[in-house]
Amino acid sequence: MRIIKRIFASAVLLVATSSPLKAQQPDAWVTFNSDAGHFSILMPEIPKDETETKPTAYGPYTSHTFITKTMKGLFLVGWVDYDPRFKFTIQDELNANRDNFVKAVHATLLRTTPITLNGNPGIEFTAESPEANIKSRVYIVGRRPYQVAAATYKSEEDADNVQRFFDSFTIKKP
Known about the structure:
21% of the residues lie in helices and 44% in strands.
C-alpha cells in the first residue's frame, strides 16, 4: 500500500477554489532554502512550512509542504520522511506518488517521462483538471521522495515561470 500525500493534492486544489494572494512580477521571485529539506528553489515568495505527521500501518510519516500562489496559479515543493520500517521500491513509489496526486486533484494524466536529478531517479508528469494545467516532478533521494509541482489556471498560462521554478530546484548534501 502506498501513502497518499494528500497535502500536496489539497494544495493544488486551492488553485481552483481560492483567490490569488497577490500578483508577483517575475523579478520578484526569491530563493527559498530549506536546511531541513536539503534543497533550494526559486519561488514567488518565501513560503511557510506546513508540516503534518500521520500514523499508518507501516509507521508514521511526516510531510513538509511549502506553497506560494500568484495571480496565475500555485507553486509547491515538499518532501516526505517515512518511518524506517516502511519499505518501497523506487519506481513503485514514483508511480504511486504520481497516481495518487492526479487522483486527489481530480485530474487526467497526460504524460509521464523518466528524469533524474544529480543521478537520483524521478519522473515528470503533466495532468489537467477542468480549471488548471499541472506539471510535477517527483524524485527519490535516498529514502525521501520530493515533489515539485506547479498548477496554472488554464486562462493564465505562465510557462516561463513554471520552467524557471522547475529548473531552479536543487538538492543539497546534508
